[in-house]
DNA sequence: ATGACTGCAAAGCCTTTGCACGCAA
DNA sequence: TTGCGTGCAAAGGCTTTGCAGTCAT
């Protein structure tokens, strides 16, 4: 059965990511580290604005541009996934090294994003990925509809 | 086997859409009709800019704002699907009444979008949709990676 | 000391909105 | 004639870029 809520936060991811960044030649700057550590504490995708606000609340102000720069670097290293679920705003979440991941349901009424996972779906996609003429690196499944609170 | 290319254009869709628009109380304006007719001739998703350019080339200039307005109305009536595959640009394609549809592979290097379809994947998603706590109205699957031309 | 990192502000895109004119009904 | 539809231009929102000061190494 697909569970609505999935993995808990993975502080190990943050360490892993910081190491990979260092290996890639990046220095340990304060802004980037703050973004990485925040992402490591999240269960689901955050927008750049979410990240900026969370960090501001914990007195670790980071300029919006730095948030975007960090996210871009992390995405280049395949440490985060960028996902676009509509509303014109990108969201980012840690990409776990073991390939364990989830997908998202988006309420088109209130914008809520809820993660879910489904092994059978993963199997279908993996099988499919081997058959197509693309080198498939990632995949996203987005279910659009109405959440429990928004349907009448 | 998942085919790379899918349905051919469906002029019937354009008629259908124009009727549904009329039923919904919309008048038969020139700009909206042009957008609908163009979409009916497409095999895959177009961006608003694509649409504007195609129409300009065939001497049927439509203001960008009118394109967006038409697309929004069509999406509200569930006649088109809006899909976001990254690059910050939304794409739109006809939503076929019989539920037949495809998904997309996106080349993150060159931006090419290629449609594919896979019945097994559809089955997984349908089964899943019945199990979750959402009223699922639509779903999108996006495979990210490198197309044949872009992989080294 | 050197070059990367950051913050700030400005610029870039895509998309939406306001408004006056034109057209369908 | 009414008020919806359209075009144009301006405004909005998210994201990227330029630049100068700051910090890691």
Give an account of the 3D structure:
The first copy, chain A, has a three-stranded antiparallel sheet. In chain A, 33% of the residues are buried. With 152 residues, chain A is of the alpha+beta class. The N terminus of chain A is likely disordered. In chain A, helix 1 runs antiparallel to helix 2, helix 2 crosses helix 4 and helix 3 packs across helix 4. Chain A is built from five helices and six strands. The interface between A and B is large, with 42 and 42 residues. Strand 6 of chain A pairs antiparallel with strand 6 of chain B. The first copy, chain A, binds a DNA duplex (25 and 25 nucleotides) through helix 2 and helix 4.
How is the topology of this model organized?
The structure is a homodimer of 152-residue chains.
Chain A (H helix, E strand, L loop, with lengths): L10 H13 L6 H11 L5 E2 H10 L6 H13 L3 E5 L5 E5 L8 E5 L5 E4 L2 H13 L3 E12 L6
Chain A binds a DNA duplex (25 and 25 nucleotides) through helix 2 and helix 4.
H/E series of chain A: HHEHHEEEEHE
% residues in beta strands of chain A: 15-25%
Overall structural class of chain A, as computed from helix and strand content, comes to alpha+beta
Largest binding interface between chains: A-B, 42 and 42 residues
Please tell me how large the radius of gyration of chain A is: 16 Å
Mean pLDDT of chain A: 90
């Amino acid at each position: 059965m697909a569970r609505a809520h999935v993995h808990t936060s993975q502080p190990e991811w943050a360490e892993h990511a910081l190491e990979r960044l260092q290996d890639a030649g990046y220095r340990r700057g304060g802004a980037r580290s703050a973004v990485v550590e925040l992402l490591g504490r999240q269960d689901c995708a955050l927008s750049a604005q979410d990240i900026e606000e969370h960090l501001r609340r914990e007195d670790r102000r980071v300029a919006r541009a730095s948030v975007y720069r960090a996210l871009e670097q992390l995405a280049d290293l395949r440490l985060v996934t960028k996902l676009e679920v509509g509303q014109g705003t990108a969201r980012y979440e840690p990409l776990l090294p073991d390939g364990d991941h989830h997908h998202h349901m988006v309420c088109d009424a209130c914008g809520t994003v809820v993660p879910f996972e489904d092994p059978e779906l993963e199997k279908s996609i993996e099988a499919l990925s081997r058959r197509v003429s693309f080198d498939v690196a990632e995949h996203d499944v987005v279910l659009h509809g109405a959440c429990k609170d928004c349907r009448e």
